[in-house]
Design a protein that fits this description.
The protein has 13 helices and 13 strands. The chain is an alpha/beta fold. Helix 6 links the parallel strand 3 and strand 4.
Length: about 425
């Protein structure tokens, strides 16, 4: 396979079949190199118009009449579109609450659906909020419940064999991030789900770092439960509501532990006893946040229009380009690759380790016009969002990293972790 680094970034951008999608996003400062779409996606231009319509027409003119006319269906309608991106049926996905709240709901529901089993298996590469929610779910279910966190030897992955070996007849639930948030390692969803099912356990997948940027087929993989956010590669906006998936054949066993009126069969009857709605709608709890919900849809539509296979192909090429340039420009400066080299096991960000990682990241933002993010203890993540990330941005980032370290620009910054990174 020819090396991409032998081709100019301008040529790679010119030949990019998705290059036109960048103009569909708000790019307020063309000189800014934005490589943090794996934390917060750019603003789709259509979202601005959509929110204006919701505020001015639906809220301003329609007032409460807009609930039956336009708003009450949003969680299921947008969930149905997300279902097309993750290999699910429309009746298996709904948008509700935050990622952590959804994870907690499904973790508790999954544990209660597996009486006599008291173990949750996860790994140390999981997002910490997932671990906190799992630990809270175990405490709620009783003193016999425990969360076992498997360690990683290399900081990049936990071998599938080690995960399979840890699952036994006591395991109720296996919960993992499909793509590890630090390293970008992509787990084999089908293999791990099969290993869990062989022992009678359920599997709950966190899709936050994979939805919208690589193909997911929950049905084919035999997944039971899943959650995911919408503000990364789906470009739904800061803190936008998350989604959850429950396999249709499992829905009659899953009971929402946080009952609320929007999950009731007849919410406007105002009965004093809760009667769960049928199907996925029973996983709703409180009143949906309409403005935030409406902001999700344009970003999802862009991903569907571009096609997830084309997005994945570009993502693999761009992360490969980054790693090839890393080998030439950054290895001599003390950087280490903290992501898989094999494209098929890599999500859409490249993590680089350096002893001065935090100070380098701060210098990139303040001095070089490059926005990555930093994950302790020493990881600089370069996020590739194929709908708007250009090869020219990737090359500028590599050169900025080189200059910051070569010229010691990071020395002006504190190594104390504080605030948002």
């Amino acid at each position: 396979m020819p090396e991409l680094r032998s081709l100019s970034p301008n040529r790679l951008d010119r030949d990019d079949p998705l290059v036109g999608f960048r103009s569909r996003f708000v790019v307020d400062d063309p000189g800014l190199c934005y490589l943090d779409g794996n934390s917060l996606g750019r603003l789709p231009a259509e979202t601005v118009a959509r929110i204006q319509t919701v505020v001015n027409e639906e809220w301003g003119r329609g007032l409460v009449r807009s609930w039956p006319a336009a708003w009450v269906e949003l969680p299921e309608r947008i969930g149905g579109k997300i279902a097309r991106l993750i290999g699910a049926d429309a009746g298996e996905v709904i948008v509700a609450d935050s990622t952590t709240v959804n994870l907690f709901k499904l973790a508790v529901a999954g544990l209660r659906a597996q009486p006599g089993r008291t173990r949750i298996i996860t790994d140390a590469l999981n997002f910490p909020s997932d671990l906190y929610a799992l630990q809270a779910a175990a405490r709620l279910c009783g003193p016999d419940y425990e969360v076992e966190i498997l360690d990683s030897v290399d900081g990049i992955s936990v071998p599938a064999e080690a995960l399979a070996a840890a699952i036994d007849e006591r395991t109720a639930l296996v919960e993992l991030s499909h793509v590890a948030f630090k390293s970008g390692h992509l787990y084999d969803m089908a293999a791990i789900s099969a290993a869990a099912h062989a022992q009678g356990a359920l599997v709950l997948w966190d899709l936050c770092h994979s939805v919208g940027v690589l193909p997911i087929d929950l049905r084919a993989a035999g997944a039971d439960l899943a959650i995911g956010c919408t503000y990364k590669y789906l470009n739904g906006g800061p803190g936008s509501p998350a989604f959850l998936f429950v396999r249709e054949t499992l829905q009659d066993r899953i009971e929402n532990p946080i009952n609320g009126w929007f999950g009731d069969a007849q919410p406007f009857e105002f009965a004093l006893d809760h009667r769960p709605a049928k199907g996925i709608r029973s996983l709703l709890t409180g009143t949906p946040p309409v403005l935030s919900l409406a902001a999700i849809e344009p970003g999802v539509d862009l991903v569907l229009e571009a096609g997830i296979e084309r997005i994945r192909e570009k993502s693999m090429r761009q992360t490969r380009y980054l790693i090839e340039r890393f080998d030439v420009e950054l290895v001599p400066l003390g950087f280490e690759l903290r992501s898989p080299r094999e494209a098929e096991w890599r999500g859409s960000h490249v993590s680089l380790g350096h002893a001065e990682g935090l100070r380098i990241a701060r210098a990139l933002i303040d001095r070089m016009g490059v926005i990555p993010d930093f994950r302790a203890p020493d990881n600089i993540r370069l996020g590739v969002a194929p709908l708007y990330t250009s090869y020219e941005e990737l090359e500028r980032a590599v050169q900025a990293l080189r200059v910051v370290v070569r010229d010691g620009l990071y020395a002006d910054y504190s190594a104390t972790l504080a605030g948002v990174t």
